[in-house]
Here is the input.
Amino acid sequence: MGRLTDRVAVITGGASGIGAAAAEKLVSEGAVVVLGDIQEQGGAEMLAKLGDRARFKLCDVTNEDQVEALIKSAVDEFGKLDVMFNNAGIVGALGPLESTTREEWQFTLDILLNGVFYGMKHASRQMKQQRSGKSASLAIMGRSAVLKSLSQAGAPNTFAPILK
Ligand SMILES: NC(=O)c1ccc[n+]([C@@H]2O[C@H](COP(=O)([O-])OP(=O)(O)OC[C@H]3O[C@@H](n4cnc5c(N)ncnc54)[C@H](O)[C@@H]3O)[C@@H](O)[C@H]2O)c1
Here is the structure.
C-alpha cells in the first residue's frame, strides 16, 4: 500500500521532465495518473513505463477545451480527481525585455498563465463538487526571464508574488 493508493492525478506536461518524474513517483505510491501533453511519442513511452496505472491524452494547455477534456477523461474513468498538477510549460520569453516581441510574450502567457488558469478552473469545478482535491501549478513559476525581469524591475507587480 502506497501513501496515495487509488488517488487520481492529472498532470499536464506529463510526457517528459518534471511532469514525467512526478507521474512515476505518484504511480509508485499507488496513484493512477492521467497525463496530458502535446508530445504523443513521449506519452506513449510513459504508458509503456508506467503500465496500467497510467493514461495519456493529447492535450495542448493553451486550448481550454482540451484541458477540460483531459480532466473529464480522468473523472469519467476513475470517478474523481484528487490531484491536479499544472506542470506543462516552456522556458518562455527570454528577453531582453526591450526586444521581446508581442508574439513571444503572447506565447509565454498562453502556456504559462492561461494554461494554468484552464487547469485550475476545470479542476476546481470538479474538486468543489466532490469536496476534496489539491492543485499545484509549477508552470506559473516558469523560467521566462522576461516574466522575472518584469517583477524585478518593479513593473506592475502582477508576477512578483508567484515568482519568489
Ligand atoms: N526545470 C527548471 O529549472 C524549472 C524551473 C522553474 C519552473 N519550471 C517549470 O516547470 C515545468 C516543467 O519543467 P521541465 O523542466 O520538466 O520542462 P520540460 O520541457 O522537460 O517539460 C515540459 C513538458 O511540457 C510539455 N508542454 C509544453 N508545452 C505544452 C503545451 N502547450 N501543452 C501541453 N504540454 C506542453 C512538453 O511537451 C514537456 O513534456 C515547466 O512549466 C517549467 O516552466 C522548470
Notes: The chain has one domain: 8-153+157-161. The domain at 8-153+157-161 is CATH 3.40.50.720 (Rossmann fold).
